[in-house]
Design brief:
It is a single chain. The protein is α/β, with parallel strands linked by helices. The chain has a domain of about 200 residues: FAD/NAD(P)-binding domain (3-Layer(bba) Sandwich). The strands form 4 sheets. It has a 7-stranded mixed beta sheet. Helix 1 runs parallel beside helix 4 and helix 7 packs antiparallel against helix 8. The radius of gyration is 20 Å and the shape is globular. InterPro entries: FAD-bd, FAD/NAD-bd_sf, Geranylgeranyl_reductase. It holds the Pfam family FAD_binding_3. This is NAD(P)-binding protein. GO terms for molecular function: FAD binding.
C-alpha cells in the first residue's frame, strides 16, 4: 500500500464497491463500512445499462458477463391501462438483467482481491472531526481516521439527518417500491413496463431465469404483492401478466418514503476540510424507468474514487459528476413526470411509435 491516507467508504453497494476497487487498484488503503450483508436481495429493477461496460472494464471486471451469465435485454414493451402499447428496441449493445445480490457479491470479491477491507454488518454510528485534517469514523469495528470519505449509503440512511441531506425532511414527495421474483415465464418482450396511475411496474428476467418484478408507486401504498394485484383490476394487460407469473417465489421486499430530488455531490467537512463525496443514490436517485441506476452507481463511485487522487477532490468530482450526469438527470426527470400520468402515454404512444429516431435520441439522452 502507498503512504497516501486511507480512503473511507460508507456503504458497500455498487457505488461504494466501485469506489473501493478503483482506489485499491491504485495502491490506496481502503476501508468500506457496509451496514448489512453483501450479496442479499435488494429493491431494484436490476437492469444494467450498456454504458456500464466501460466502467466494469476500467475496474478489471469486464469478465462479469462470462462469470455471471446475466439475461440479455433488448426488446422493450410499454403497456397502458387503456390498451395503448409501445414496442421499442434498445439501440447499441443489449442491457443486462442481473440481480443486485449477484453483482454486489462479484464486486465485493474483486474489491477484496484488490486489497480493500470490506466490513459487513458494520453500520457507521458517528463521524467526528479530528483536527487538523482527518475525520474519525466510529463503528462496532472501532474508530478509524480517514482523510477522504465517499458516502454511498443508498436511497436512505441513518446518516441523512446528520449530513443535512434534503431527503431527511418528511415534507418531500414520497414513493414506494416493491420487488418480487417469480418463476421463469415467457414474456412478450425482454422488458415489460406497465404504466399505472402514479407509477409503473417493470418485469424482466435475471441471470438465473427468474422473472424480476419491480414497482414504483407514488404515495404510501403498502409494499406488498396485493398492491400490484389491486392495480391489475384496472389494467387488463397487467392482470394477464400477473396471472401468467403466478405467486412470487419468496416474500416481496419493499422500500418506502424515498424520492428523486438532488441530495449532495461534494462538500468539505467544515472543521477539518476533509472532502465528502456522495455517490450513487446518496447523491441523487435517477427515475427508475430509465434503468440507469446501477450504471450511474458504478460510474459515480469510480469518479468519486478517482477524484480523491486530485489536489482538489471536491472540485474534481463536482465537475466530473456534472459532465457525466447533469443532462441525463434533466431529461429523465422530464420524462418521468409524463410516465406518472397514464392518459398522457395513451395519447402519445401511437405518435412515438412512428418516430423511432426520437425514441433512440431520448434513450441515449438518459445514458452516458
Amino acid at each position: 500500500m502507498s503512504e497516501r491516507p486511507p480512503l473511507g467508504i460508507v456503504g458497500g453497494g455498487l457505488a461504494g464497491l466501485a469506489a473501493a476497487i478503483a482506489a485499491a487498484q491504485r495502491g490506496r488503503e481502503v476501508l468500506v463500512w457496509e451496514s448489512g450483508v453483501i450479496g442479499r436481495d435488494k429493491v431494484c429493477g436490476e437492469f444494467l445499462s450498456p454504458e456500464a461496460e466501460e466502467d466494469l472494464d476500467a475496474l478489471g471486471c469486464g469478465d462479469l458477463v462470462s462469470a455471471l451469465k446475466p439475461a440479455h435485454l433488448r426488446a422493450v414493451a410499454l403497456f397502458g391501462a387503456g390498451g395503448a402499447r409501445l414496442d421499442l428496441t434498445l439501440p447499441g449493445h443489449p442491457a443486462l438483467g442481473i440481480t443486485r445480490a449477484a453483482l454486489e457479491a462479484f464486486l465485493a470479491r474483486r474489491a477484496r482481491e484488490a486489497g480493500a477491507t470490506v466490513l459487513e454488518r458494520t453500520p457507521v454510528r458517528a463521524m467526528a472531526p479530528k483536527p487538523p485534517r482527518a475525520l474519525e469514523i466510529q463503528s462496532q469495528a472501532g474508530t478509524h481516521a480517514v482523510r477522504s470519505l465517499v458516502l454511498s449509503m443508498g436511497k436512505r440512511s441513518t446518516l441523512d439527518a446528520p449530513l443535512d441531506l434534503p431527503r431527511a425532511s418528511a415534507a418531500r414527495p414520497s414513493f414506494v417500491a416493491i420487488k418480487a421474483y417469480c418463476a421463469p415465464t415467457p414474456l412478450e418482450a425482454d422488458v415489460e413496463l406497465y404504466l399505472v396511475p402514479g407509477g409503473y411496474i417493470g418485469v424482466n428476467p435475471v441471470e438465473d431465469g427468474r422473472i424480476g418484478v419491480c414497482a414504483l408507486l407514488e404515495g404510501n401504498a403498502r409494499p406488498v404483492w396485493q398492491t400490484l394485484e389491486d392495480h391489475a383490476t384496472r389494467h387488463p394487460a397487467l392482470a394477464r401478466r400477473l396471472a401468467s407469473l403466478g405467486a412470487p417465489t419468496q416474500k416481496p421486499r419493499g422500500l418506502a418514503r424515498f424520492g428523486f430530488g438532488a441530495q449532495a455531490v461534494a462538500r468539505a467537512c467544515p472543521t477539518t476540510g476533509v472532502p465528502l463525496l456522495f455517490a450513487g443514490d446518496a447523491a441523487r436517485l435517477v427515475p427508475s424507468f430509465t434503468g440507469d441506476g446501477m450504471a450511474i452507481a458504478l460510474r459515480s463511485g469510480r469518479l468519486a474514487s478517482l477524484a480523491t487522487f486530485s489536489p482538489d477532490p471536491i472540485r474534481a468530482y463536482t465537475r466530473a459528476f456534472s459532465r457525466a450526469f447533469a443532462a441525463r438527470f434533466l431529461v429523465a426527470g422530464a420524462l418521468h413526470g409524463l410516465l406518472l400520468h397514464p392518459p398522457v402515454f395513451e395519447l402519445l404512444a401511437p405518435l412515438v411509435g412512428r418516430a423511432p429516431r426520437l425514441v433512440d435520441m431520448l434513450y441515449r439522452a438518459t445514458r452516458g
